[in-house]
Amino acid sequence: MRILAIDPGYDRLGIAVLEGNPSRPTLVMSDCVLPDKGSSEKRLAHVSRAITEVIKEHLPDALGIETLFFSANKKTAIGVAEARGAILAAAGMVSLPVIECSPQQVKLAVTGHGGSDKSTVAAMIPRLLSLPAKKRLDDEMDAIAIGITALAAGLPRK
To answer: Using CB atoms within 10 A of its CB, is residue 132 exposed (0-12), middle (13-18) or buried (19+)?
Structure first.
């Protein structure tokens, strides 16, 4: 199975494509998309285009995405919710099944403990799959973790 995994964000968007199974995942690609600064419609169009391009290039079987985490900062939460909408719309345009993963599910799938912190999750990822050497932002590492979780969850039932 091939998963397009996304850590949704308004300022930064983590993207990863993984394939295989949860016990032997393979990283196909990962990146961090930085939407154009400016109006929200331009940012969201950038997000949608980026997702559409990755879908066309990598032909995933499903989209893995983190569920919305409500922070104290309402402006940030709204921006992330809008970015999620653009991502889900891009997936919907090609009937790509969606696997939603909560932060606790991601932590449990990657570390074996749902209460792990971000640094523990990031430290565990290179133990689970081979990562080509490059500097990665947290959002990109989070997308890889979401991909591992989505592989473990499998395709949603219809």
So the answer is: exposed
